[in-house]
Amino acid sequence: MRYQISGRQLDIGDALQTHVKSELNETVEKYAQRPTEAVVTFSRKAHEMVCEATLHLSTGLTATASGKATEIYPAFEACRERLDKQLRRHKRRLRDHYGRRSRPVEFGTGQSYILAATEETEDSEDDSLQPVVIAEMETRVPEISVGEAVMQLELSAQKLLVFRNEGHGGVNVVYRREDGNIGWIDPRNSK
């Protein structure tokens, strides 16, 4: 497994890096035997230390967690406990509802744009109709089933997930609704 352990305006020592690697290895081996990459970032927010971790698995799952504490090691432990809980839930759902995936998740690429908000003025009515692109990047779009997309959305902190439906290859969206439920948009069924 590849590790990327860094600190935002913090010096991360070798002892902390070794601790993070050993603890994450132990957690991942318990639930998922094929991790690919772990990104752990430490930062300071006011008087608290913050640990944010993202774990990528070969099944396509991306587990994200964060932890806060007054010291750096307890912040990591809080983050690790949340990752542990997510991986445990993921494994239970796979065991209960889904068979083993016969092939790895395939990822396509898609363009992602961030549009700048504009202030409306009476003089610039024509200009305000055209949004300004302030960032353009490429994003990965997994080809997974709806159940796996819902599972990944529940395990992550994202508000929506765009994916290719494994059943028919069309682009679908699952999202968190304001009432706490999960919505699913399948344009193929809109006829």
Automatic annotation (TrEMBL):
InterPro entries: HPF/YfiA_ribosome-assoc, HPF_long/plastid, RHF-like, RHF/RaiA, Ribosom_S30AE_C, Ribosom_S30AE_C_sf. Residues 130-183 form the Sigma 54 modulation/S30EA ribosomal protein C-terminal domain. The keyword Cytoplasm applies. One of its GO terms (cellular component) is cytosolic small ribosomal subunit. GO terms for biological process: negative regulation of translational elongation. Its main location: cytoplasm. SUPFAM superfamilies: Ribosome binding protein Y (YfiA homologue). It is found in: Cytoplasm. Required for dimerization of active 70S ribosomes into 100S ribosomes in stationary phase; 100S ribosomes are translationally inactive and sometimes present during exponential growth. Associates exclusively with 100S ribosomes, which are dimers of 70S ribosomes. This is Ribosome hibernation promoting factor. It comes from Falsigemmobacter intermedius. The gene is raiA.
